[in-house]
């Protein structure tokens, strides 16, 4: 939890945090559907399909972090993977998309698997 002095120096604006969260959620939902298309076309089944989804969802979060969060200057004393300044918390940033996009992934995965294998 940041101290009062840190919040005065670099305040956290809730509207910006909400905008960042919405942008990341939209990106993760879109990529989950694209990963479902890829998994269906590749003919992945069972655990290999879900492993494909988990790996590429975490890769998407890492790329988003690298391109959007990391280039900004980090305050002194902050860990390099700390996202609390831009998002509600690290758990939401790194794994929130896994649960939000799962339904879209399964839907497009089964659709394209059925289209390719039919």
TrEMBL record:
Main localisation: endoplasmic reticulum
Keywords recorded for this protein, A-Z: Endoplasmic reticulum, Membrane, Transmembrane, Transmembrane helix
Entries under InterPro entries matching the protein: Emc6 (IPR008504), EMC6-like (IPR029008)
Gene Ontology BP terms: autophagosome assembly; protein folding in endoplasmic reticulum
Compartments, record wording: Endoplasmic reticulum membrane
TM ranges: 24-44, 50-70, 91-116
Pfam family, one: EMC6
Membrane topology category: Multi-pass membrane protein
Cellular component GO terms, alphabetical: EMC complex
Family listed: Belongs to the EMC6 family.
Record's protein name: ER membrane protein complex subunit 6
Native source organism of the sequence: Thyridium curvatum
